[in-house]
Amino acid sequence: MSIYEHYRAEERNFVDRVLEWQGEVEERYSPKLTDFLDPREQDIVTQIIGNHPEVSVSFSGAVDGAERQRALLLPPYLTATTEDYAVVALEITYPSKFVSLSHPDLLGALMGLGLKREKFGDIYVMDGHAQLIVAEEVAEYIKINLNQAGKASISPEVIPITKVNVPPTRWEEQTGTVSSLRLDAVLAEVYNLSRSKVSPMIEHERAKLNWKVVDQPSTEIKAGDYLSLRGSGRSKINTIDGKTKKGKWRITYSIRK
To answer: What is the pTM of this model?
Structure first.
C-alpha cells in the first residue's frame, strides 16, 4: 500500500517534504527545524514520523495552545530544548480609541513585507495591543519594517515569551449523520445550516479545507480534515464511523468555541 493513499492528492507534495526531512535526519544525524505548520500539517508529520526508531519529532508554537507550530525532527541522541525552536514574540501597541486593528490587518501587513505565511505563527489581537509569534530568523526584519497595519501606525517590540497572552479556546465534540461526505453536506451538519445556503458560500470561496480555500461543494471529506466557514468558526472531522441502516454516514466532529 502506498503512503499516498492515506492523503489527499493536494497533500502529496507536503508528504514528500516530510519524507525528505526524515531522510535528512537519518543520513546526516543532525536536527531539522521546519517553518510554522498548520494543525493539519502537524498531523501529517506526526503520522509519517510516528514511532520511527531513528527520528523523533516534537512541536512548539512558543506558548501552550498555539495553533501554528514549528516541528523539530531529531536523531535519537538529541533532546529538544525551548531555544531549539527559534521563535520570538513581538508586541504591538496602538491607540484603540482612535484606530482599530484586526487579525487580517496584521496578516496582510506581514505578507506585504514579502514574508511567507510559514515564517510566522499565531497572531493574537486584543483591545489596544497585539502579539505575534515569528521565526527568529525574520524577527529583526519584521521589527524594522512592520510600521503600518490597516490604518494603524505600529512599532513592534520583542517581549519575553512568558508575556504572551493566549485567548482561551475549547473544542466541543459532537456526533451527527450526513447523507453524503460532500463538503456542502458536512458543513451543513456541522454548522446547523441548510445545504442550499452552504453551497453558494463554498462557490464564493468562503470555505476552507485544511487551511486552503475550496470552491467545489462536491469535494469529499475525510477523517482528520479541518474545515472552516466564514463567520462560523473552525471544526475538525474526528472520525467517520460507517453508515446507519438508512444509509447515512455517521460522523464525529469537534467545533472550536
So the answer is: 0.88
